[in-house]
Specification:
This protein is α+β, with helices and mostly antiparallel strands and about 160 residues long. The protein is about 45% helix and about 20% strand. It is globular, with a radius of gyration of 16 Å. The N and C termini lie far apart (about 40 Å).
Length: about 160
């Protein structure tokens, strides 16, 4: 993964080649246009990120804002990380079906959708999946997943 030391989103975009910058700006705008209340854009893990800020929800396991989505420029592609898709099997299934229904080929890891050009993405679906999870629902899901992890660790120790 290519990690940037940029301190601002604009600095991050400015350090990219023009073709990548245009694609990243287009995807970023879709995210911004559809982002539910409660998330904030920031540089996060060397990428553009959208997260619940620590002043709103400080109880994260790693002391960082609770990441919801990120947009990164990698060596051979760009990535859109969708944590609400990664953390929810129903949403993941729906997302994959909708991606295929739009005639696009999905190149996806656990949470990242890899793309080489903005045309590789169904931007309407990206907007829809971003708008899907209100911040309070995302916090509840996060807390439930952390509780499940703790419970599973206790059982494993027995």
């Amino acid at each position: 993964m290519v990690k940037s030391e940029a301190q601002t989103v604009q600095d991050y975009l400015d350090e990219m080649p023009d073709d990548r910058r245009e694609s990243m700006q287009a995807v970023r705008q879709v995210v911004l246009d559809n982002l539910p209340h409660g998330y904030r854009e920031m540089m996060l893990y060397g990428m553009i990120g959208w997260a619940i800020p620590l002043e709103v929800y400080p109880e994260t396991y790693n002391g960082h804002p609770l990441a919801y989505a990120s947009l990164g420029n990698q060596k051979n592609y760009m990535s859109l990380y969708l944590m609400n898709v990664y953390g929810d099997q129903v949403t993941e299934k729906w997302f994959k079906e909708q991606f295929a229904a739009r005639g696009k080929k999905l190149n996806m890891g656990k949470s990242c959708v890899r793309f080489k050009r903005v045309d590789d993405l169904p931007l309407d679906l990206i907007g829809e999946v971003i708008s899907l999870t209100p911040a309070q629902d995302y916090i509840r899901h996060y807390e439930q997943s952390r509780a499940n992890m703790k419970s599973n660790r206790k059982r494993a120790k027995r």
